[in-house]
Amino acid sequence: MATSWLHKAAMIASVLAPLALAGCMGGADEGTVIARTADGSEHRFAVQIADTQDSRRQGLMFVTELGANEGMLFDFKEERQVAFWMQNTLIPLDMIFARSDGTIANVHANARPRDTTSIPSDGAVQFVLEIPGGRSAEIGLKAGDTLVHPRMNAGE
Q: Which one of 19, 102, 112, 130 is separated from 91 by 20 to 30 angstroms, measured CA to CA?
């Protein structure tokens, strides 16, 4: 009986420990990216994280719909030159390329679905935020603006 109780306690602890750790991070939310424009406005995007080779390879391929404030944040774990294409992507996307501190290096607006043309970063970046095509223009997001996320070294 005691073994069963200890086993259950260990299972509960393994579930609760990551939640407690997240609480120690000041309420940081991995599922949200904040885009700050030059005029000081902030726009929140609910994101999925793509931070493994497989998840980055899959990206938003075959997705047929994306809400105005939804997207995917690609984390390459270090700054480097990256490039994307849209071969199996069915919806237009804006690609926001950002350095490790969240500074936007460049924005590629309205990438065309199913296009195999390479879309490169403007220099070394660590992150790429993909959001619905045309959304970056709607909110006034451009190079030099910032993205805020717990993985970025913006010092928030």
A: 102
Burial-class residue 14 by CB neighbours within 10 Å (0-12, 13-18, 19+). Answer: exposed
* Whether 114 contacts 64, CB under 8 Å: no
| DSSP structure class, residue 28 | -
- Alpha-carbon gap, residue 21 to 145, rounded angstroms: 30
Question: What is the chain's alpha carbon radius of gyration, rounded to the nearest angstrom?
Answer: 18
Note the pTM of the prediction, 2 decimals: 0.81
Neighbours of 107 (CB within 10 A): 19
**Residue 104 identity (one-letter amino acid):** I
Per-residue pLDDT 10s for the chain (156 aa) are 444 433 333 333 333 333 333 333 334 589 999 999 999 999 999 999 999 999 999 999 999 999 999 999 999 999 999 999 999 999 999 999 999 999 999 999 999 999 999 999 999 999 999 999 999 999 999 999 999 999 998 544
